[in-house]
Design brief:
The two termini are 29 Å apart. The protein has two domains: 10-100 and 217-267, Rossmann fold (3-Layer(aba) Sandwich), CATH 3.40.50.1860; 104-214, Rossmann fold. With 268 residues, the protein is an alpha/beta fold. 40% of the residues lie in helices and 17% in strands. The protein has helices at residues 23-29, 51-69, 79-92, 104-110, 122-125, 128-137, 149-159, 166-177, 199-206, 216-226, 254-257, and strands at 10-14, 35-39, 73-76, 97-98, 115-120, 142-147, 187-190, 211-213, 239-243, 262-267. Bound molecules: D-glutamic acid. Residues 14-16, 18, 44-47, 78-80, 121, 124, 152, 192-194 line the site of D-glutamic acid. It is an enzyme of class 5 (isomerase). Its EC number is 5.1.1.3. It holds the Pfam family Asp_Glu_race.
């Protein structure tokens, strides 16, 4: 295989705006990399879809995006899509694919009480993938799980400058804390890329004794490792965000995406 040209972008993919939370740490390591950020607004929310639907939809859409943007590497910046469709995507596409894995391993290293919360979409928290991660890295811990579709809606609203319903935040924390053992929980894994957008609100409700952890730094390190030695543009340029067309949900205003280094919006 030919090495990628300096201009070949990195493609980030999520159902919505959550995957933007992965861009910051990636840009810190690879400051001039061209970025294409794709959001499947026609399919949002993924957390409410069946495994079969996502296993078909995600590889097909990523195939279209790869053809259109010719990225050097694709990042599934979505826990739901990764825990369900990563193997299907890798089988279908011939380029390096980085997935998003709930950060249970670092959470197990961080907890002092031995009780970890995993906050994700309903689809993610029911995955056998999460059972496997818990068995492998946190067998001697209590791993509580809660699926919160409201936090996805809240994160999308916050990015558009709309208010976030405080009850949604309270319900998400209570969904973990009210389970047996939950009062001792001292680490919460944000196992949906939308949720770090609401970390300040979640922290205020959970209190200062709870630490939050997500996978963004690990993803950035993995991207840097897989692209080591490749050429990059001499100077940074604003990234492109591409949205699948949805009548109910138009793309957000560009000003909401600019803080993430996005300078242009397309719809497909
Ligand atoms: N951001 C996604 C995740 O990481 C999914 C949100 C959704 O579409 O439900 O799980």
């Amino acid at each position: 295989m030919q090495p990628p040209s300096a201009d070949a972008p990195i493609l980030f993919f999520d159902s919505g705006l959550g995957g933007l939370t992965v861009l910051g740490p990636t840009r810190a390591l690879l400051p001039t990399a061209r970025i294409v950020y794709a959001a499947d607004y026609a399919g949002l929310p993924y957390g409410q879809k069946s495994d079969a639907e996502l296993a078909a939809r995600v590889p097909a859409l990523l195939g279209r995006l790869v053809e259109r943007y010719q990225p050097r590497l694709a990042v599934i910046a979505c826990n739901t899509a990764s825990t369900i469709a990563l193997a299907h995507v890798r089988a279908a596409l011939d380029l390096p694919i980085v997935g998003t894995v709930p950060a249970i391993k670092p959470a197990a290293a961080l907890t002092k009480s031995g009780v970890i919360g995993v906050l994700g979409t309903e689809a993610t928290v029911r995955q056998p993938y999460v059972d496997d991660l818990s068995a492998k890295f946190a067998a001697d811990k209590i791993v509580l799980r809660h699926g919160s579709p409201g936090l996805v809606t809240g994160a999308e609203a916050k990015l558009r400058g709309e208010p976030v319903d405080p009850e949604v935040i309270e319900r998400a924390i209570a969904g973990l804390r009210d389970q047996p053992g939950g009062e001792a929980m001292d680490v919460i894994v944000l196992a949906c890329t939308h949720f770090p957008l609401l970390q300040a609100e979640l922290q205020a409700t959970a209190g200062p004794d709870v630490r939050f952890i997500d996978g963004a730094e690990g993803i950035a390190r993995r991207i840097a490792y897989l692209t080591e030695g490749q050429d990059w543009p001499a100077v940074a340029s604003p990234g492109t965000a591409v949205f699948t067309r949805s009548d109910e949900r138009p793309p957000p205003p560009l000003a909401a995406l600019e803080p993430f280094g996005i300078g242009r919006i397309e719809t497909i």
